Amino acid sequence: MKRVDTIARVRWAFHVQGWSMKRIARELHVSRNTVRKILRTDETDFTYEREHQPMPRIGPWQAEVDRFLAANEGKPSRERLTMIRIYEEVRALGYEGSYDAVRRYAKTWSKARGSAAAEAYVPLYYAPGEAYQFDWSHEIVLIGGVTTTVKVAHVRLCHSRMMFARAYMRESQEMVFDAHERAFAFFKGACTRGIYDNMKTAVEAVFIGKERLYNRRFLQMCSHYLVQPVACTPASGWEKGQVENQVGLVRERFFTPRLRVKSLDELNVWLLDKCIAYAKAHKHPERSDQMIWQMFEAERATLVPYVGPFDGFHSVPASVSKMCLVRFDNNKYSVISTAVGRPVEVHAYAEKIVIRQNGVVVAEHPRCFGRNETVYDPWHYVPVLARKPGALRNGAPFQNWVLPAAMAGVRRKLKSVSDGDRQMVAILGCVAGDGIVAVEAACQEALVQGVFSAPVIINILARSRDHTPPPLLLTPTALRLTHEPVADCARYDSLRRTSRYGTHPGSGTDGNPQTLRDAQCL
Questions:
Q1: DSSP-assigned states of every residue in 15-69
Q2: Are 80 and 177 within one domain?
Q3: DSSP assignment, residue 504?
Q4: Do 138 and 232 belong to one domain?
Q5: Do 88 and 236 fall into the same domain?
Q6: How far is 267 from 278, CA to CA, in rounded Å?
Q7: Is residue 457 domain-shared with residue 422, that is, in the same domain?
Q8: What is the C-alpha separation between 317 and 445, in angstroms, rounded?
Q9: 366 and 397 part of one domain
Q10: Of 326, 344, 375, which residue constitutes the final position of a domain?
Q11: Most C-beta atoms within 10 A of its C-beta, which of 86, 185, 268, 504?
Q12: Bridging pattern class, strands 498-499 and 146-157
């Protein structure tokens, strides 16, 4: 088939230059029949389409091949027949052609079916408060000057198109719980249905159709917020197309160019402000007379009321080492010394780690997202110092320990004393019973008085421990005096010494029997 430039040259030579068809064929090296066809039709382009494709071998067996291919489509991938098996089945029915013919026909059949399915879509409608969509994305930012890949959780209300985004350092289950809690707190409610992909933090097993085996803790969260989870078909992102579009929008508008922030908290505050600003500045795609924020305000009344935060932790059993440390997520966290030797349960939240033993909290730390880092709480090791006071000076948990000002001043002064570590350990041991505020006040009073020894501080704590007056003792009625005695000290000045030979002058007695008895008593 001649190209359009050849056709143009033929037409130009005949209509403008006035050449004959013979000369055109000779000069342009084109057959006379082609020149005649170009000039008679006045077309500027010619296309050739085969009206009928001959299939001498596979033609009579197309229906059988179609039947095998259609049956394959409705089966799981493990149960589908391979092309070799389909070829063998058709051969058994009498087909005498080659395997390549079957393979080419199957490829053409699949392409036609795919084109037919991709040509048209059905627009979806979601009622107010009916559904939301959830998804994750990975973005690169500079946090404190360090290039970091953060995981961004996206939540989108399907009716109003209101979006919510929050960044995390992990994509684990506790982050899923925290993202839902913060999104529903921002929306002031939840939808009755949540649309997810088959993420491992929510779905444990995928069955035929929409049937799923959900994670137990994930179902607890959905029950808490009265949400019914719905999982998409695997590798079918269009089933939650709104949040998929949100991922691209947030990446293009919020994370380009690369963001520079000081901390993850600053990034999340900035993201929330950007989501609100975008909703107030852009119109709803289906209701061009209203902004997204106005549609969101109207949808809020139809949401399931927010019932408060879900206790969203991921529980992992662990053991306590002799160093009072528990290992979790490639990092170590200290626990109280009394927990050594018994198993504990680590409750991992999005921003903190809580360690429990028999239901009692034995440690709580801010979560660390580095690797091979150790997080100490020096107070966990204070009971150990009672037996090993020398560890206060060189112990790793006590390096750079920030104590209250007065306690730190006492510690500095005790460093010059021979038994200063032992005395400081005694002072620290009082915190468990009296509280750090009382011990700080006692240390401050001791410093004002110019002393800083442990006995003085413990004495101050004992004196300030109880300010209530002693209780009054009530005298029983039987022991009360009828006539209370009257004190008369002058009577004793007149006493005289008395013996069996009589009364001696100057003895201080006057011979009165009562006076004599008093003198004998003396």
A1: HTS---HHHHHHHHT--HHHHHHHHHH--S------S----TTTGGGHHHHHHHH
A2: no
A3: P
A4: yes
A5: no
A6: 16
A7: yes
A8: 46
A9: no
A10: 375
A11: 86
A12: unpaired
b vs e for 410-440, b when ≥16 Cβ sit within 10 Å of the residue's Cβ? Answer: bbebbeeeeebbbbbbbbbbbbeebeeebbb
Residue 337: inside a domain, yes or no? Answer: yes
Q: Residue 321 is encoded by which pair of tokens?
A: 């080492």
Same domain, 495 and 459: no
Pairing of strands 304-305, 260-261: unpaired
Instruction: Give the amino acid at 24.
Output: I
110 and 30 inside one domain: no
Is residue 216 domain-resident?
yes
Highest mean pLDDT among 164-178, 396-410, 437-451, 497-511: 164-178
Provide the pairing of β-strand 193-196 with 131-143.
Answer: parallel
Confidence of residue 444 (pLDDT cuts 50, 70, 90): very high
Boundary-marking domain end, from 249, 277, 305: 305
Residues facing residue 167 across a β-bridge: 152
**491 closest CA partner among 520, 457, 518:** 518
Pick from 389, 77, 15, 381: which is nearest to 206 by CA? Answer: 77
Domain-located, residue 48 = no
pLDDT in tens, 60-108: 888 888 888 888 887 777 788 888 988 998 899 888 888 988 888 888 8
Secondary structure (DSSP) of 458-502: HHHHHHHH--PPPPPPPPPGGGS-SS-----THHHHT---EETTE
* pLDDT of the residue at 501: 56
Tell me, yes or no, whether 198 lies in a domain: yes
Strand partners, 344: 318
What H or E segment, with its residue span, contains residue 81? Answer: none
For the chain, how many structural domains are there in total? 6
β partners of residue 304:
190
Residue 421 lies in domain: 385-465
